[in-house]
Design a protein that fits this description.
The chain is built from 17 helices and 26 strands. The protein is of the alpha+beta class. Strands 3-12-13-19-16-15-14 form a seven-stranded mixed beta sheet. Strands 23-22-24-25-26 form a five-stranded mixed beta sheet, sandwiched between helices. Strands 5-4-9 form a three-stranded antiparallel beta sheet. A hairpin with an 8-residue loop joins strand 4 and strand 5. Helix 2 packs across helix 13, helix 3 crosses helix 12 and helix 5 runs antiparallel to helix 6. The radius of gyration is 28 Å and the shape is globular. The chain starts with a helix and ends with a helix. The structure holds glycyl-adenosine-5'-phosphate. Glycyl-adenosine-5'-phosphate binds next to strand 13, strand 16, strand 19 and helix 13.
Length: 539
């Protein structure tokens, strides 16, 4: 049986083998939380960013009730005046709770809210066992000896077998620690039927005893949580002191807020207005995990959409739906993609509403993008700290106000990982069963041109076709190895079409077109290759 973990391992192996993603500085043993994109990965990532820029900035959808609005871009520096991060609240509050393992030889650090206890509670649908279990829970604090005796009598393992794991949610914790993943000794301690449960460390059920370390398993070795600021620091200039301290930006958003007035004053734009940016962000994540999903250096695509406060709820709903649809249109199946509205107690203090676009990765449902109504929080914070007037005069309403902001904020690298995961397909009927079914807009290579053999005048026909195609579409030429192996390589790269020049081409001028999705083949005139791609890819 193929588990989700096996699928993830296979995706990682294919990405490494075919040059989508490498560990950063691998020749020196790598560095945790940093990744490099190889030739195919670089093209894929560029295509995703270009699709975003084109669909959101250059040609955004029409707004609610047919409203046209303007979108413009900025490209801000990674290092900004540290006062920006004081105003935004990042210096004071951009931190995660951290716990450490005290055990000799381990000393690992974990994000407190990403450690889960996964247990196997010895109740199923047997009411008697359930009743006995409930009684034991109540007795455990008052009379542990009696609780133990009752557990022995009812043949219940109590406290239940439980382990600790790092995960993003209770659901992914249960995927990581399933019954099947337990050792035989652990399985022997669980009397079926059982209930598979997961709790965050902070909500450990009473009576479960000290939590184990997720890495070394030592019980009671974890410290109490303490706050750890995630901003990566550096120094500007020759002296390394408090005055030269600066930060690598943890989000691209603040560059947009700091430039709001510059854009308004120089660009003949009116509200409602979106300012967009794609760029690197850095976070000193306590424990980067799940391949590229949680990295220390990553790219974001963010829009800060400035509007009149009364229209913010309307624009929030608009952007939430637009962003969800964008992922679906580029091939993320709707059932794996979820739009989840935040509950009131989940909202950041400055946000009025927020929704996450989540994708069901092999390691569980996880956030790709957040869409938030950030109100006037950021602009007001910068007005106060900088002393500059960042309000806007609306000449249609004849009113001056500090705009509200709707922020769709996505992670480019997380999107790359989601599109790779979605595209990864196993077709056992093929000689080489792994292929990447990318949406044609995202495919790193759109077509390949192959002479069936590298002789008999076939390369002389194939090369001019290749030169024509590559003027319009990213294309590769390959004359080596068997044709089956060449198709398999292109399937793994996610190339939608391959043109093969064979003996018949010399007779009637036709070439074979092979479709990646079903491996079907048809013949077309060799002069129609570009036109064929144009029709089929609709790019
Ligand atoms: N300006 C708002 C903001 O930065 P966020 O939820 O902290 O909000 C936005 O980040 C997006 O950036 C996330 O939805 C995610 O896609 C991406 N992201 C955040 N931390 C990341 C990390 N450590 N590695 C990769 N992507 C990350």
């Amino acid at each position: 049986m193929t588990t989700q973990a096996d699928t993830m391992e296979k995706i990682v192996a294919l990405c490494r083998r075919r040059g989508f993603i490498f560990g950063s500085s691998e020749i020196y043993g790598g560095i945790g939380g940093f990744w490099d994109y190889g030739p195919l990965g670089t093209e894929l990532k560029r295509n995703i960013k270009e699709a975003w820029w084109n669909d959101m900035v250059r040609n955004p959808p029409v707004g609610p009730n047919g409203t046209e609005f303007q979108m413009v871009g900025v490209d801000c520096s990674i290092i900004m005046n540290p006062k920006v991060w004081e105003a935004s609240g990042h210096v004071g509050g951009f931190s995660d709770p951290m716990v450490a393992c005290r055990a000799e030889g381990c000393k690992r650090l974990f994000r407190d809210d990403k450690v889960f206890l996964v247990g196997f509670i010895p109740v199923g649908d047997d009411p008697q066992r359930e009743e006995a279990f409930e009684e034991i829970q109540q007795l455990r604090e008052q009379d542990p000896t009696k609780a133990r005796a009752l557990a022995r009598q009812a043949e219940l393992n109590d406290p239940p077998v439980y382990l600790a794991v790092e995960a993003d949610s209770e659901e992914s914790a249960k995927i990581e620690i399933s019954y099947d993943s337990l050792s035989n000794t652990q399985k022997r301690r669980i009397t079926p039927p059982f209930q598979h449960v997961a709790y965050p460390l902070s909500r450990k059920p009473s009576g479960w005893g000290p939590p184990p370390c997720p890495a070394c398993g030592t019980r009671g070795s974890l410290t109490e949580p303490r706050q750890f600021n995630l901003m990566l620091q550096t120094h500007i200039g020759a002296l390394q002191d408090v005055a030269s301290l600066a930060y690598l930006r943890p989000e691209t958003a603040q560059g947009i807020f700091a430039n709001f007035k510059n854009v308004i004053d120089t660009s003949r734009v009116k509200l409602p207005l979106g300012i967009a940016q794609i760029g690197k962000a850095f976070r000193n994540e306590i424990n980067p995990r799940n391949y590229t999903f949680r990295s220390r250096e990553f790219e974001q695509y963010e829009i800060e959409f400035f509007c009149h406060p009364s229209e913010a709820p309307m624009w929030y709903e608009f952007w939430r739906d637009v962003r969800h649809k964008w992922y679906v249109d580029l091939g993320l199946q709707s059932e794996k993609l979820r739009l989840r509205e935040h509950e009131g107690d989940e909202l950041a203090h400055y946000a009025k509403s927020c929704a996450d676009v989540e994708y069901d990765f092999p390691f569980g449902l996880s956030e790709l993008e957040g869409i938030a109504n950030r109100t006037d929080f950021d602009l007001k914070a910068h007005i106060e700290k900088s002393g500059k007037d960042l309000s806007y005069f609306d000449d249609q309403r004849k009113e001056r106000y500090v705009p509200y902001v709707i922020e769709p904020s996505g992670g480019v690298d997380r999107s790359v990982l989601a599109f790779i995961t979605e595209a990864y397909t196993v077709d056992e009927n093929r000689a080489s069963p792994e292929l990447m079914m990318f949406h044609p807009r995202l495919s790193p290579i759109k077509a390949a041109v192959f002479p069936l053999v590298a002789k008999d005048g076939l390369p002389e026909i194939a090369e001019p076709i290749y030169r024509e195609v590559k003027k319009r579409f990213p294309c590769q030429y390959d004359a080596k190895q068997s044709i089956g192996k060449r198709y398999a390589r292109m399937d793994e790269a996610g190339t939608p079409f391959c043109f093969t020049i064979d003996g018949q081409t010399k007779e009637d001028g036709t070439v074979t077109v092979r479709d990646r999705n079903d491996a079907s083949q048809i013949r077309i005139d060799k002069s129609r290759c570009v036109e064929y791609l144009h029709d089929k890819l609709s790019l």
